[in-house]
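[READ THE FOLD]
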Amino acid sequence: MYCCFGRISPTAGEATKMMICQAGSVEVNTRTEKWSDTADEIVEYIVGSDRLRDVITQVKVWERTI
């Protein structure tokens, strides 16, 4: 399972970015996180042995929020 966030700030006062990481403990999240300015960068994230771009149509979305 993975978590993907649209526009959040990495730390207080910083510009917002997109973030994706493997779901798990804080240590797992920190070790696997990727911060990006664009969706094109996020879809290059490796999920298993494939890029997110190649598997995005096969994902099961568990929750969405606005």
